[in-house]
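Researcher: Structure prediction, please.
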Amino acid sequence: MAEAENYLADVRRYDAGASEAVVQKIVKHLGIALNSPDSRLVACSDQTEKDRVKTSWVEGKLGLSGDTQMLINDVCEEMKGDVNKQRVTFYYLLAMHTGKLGDL
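Model: Predicted structure follows.
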């Protein structure tokens, strides 16, 4: 199983004070998906991928409903400088921007 320390540096590029415990909770949620190189990344150019993020993370884990596509697009924009958008970082930023880090 992947460990938070493998992803913490990337998350801290966006939030210097990121908690390792919170990152570990995201890593645990993603589980074996992080074993696949493709699953470790979020493809913002793929609408199916963004729909999957919305269903599984934004609605499923964060418990948000309604039109959350703009939120996902905002994180895509925030991470536009990263060719490879780490899923753990992407999910962390979604939780951070919605004030849901403490709920993880």
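Model: The mean pLDDT is 92.
Researcher: Thanks, that helps.
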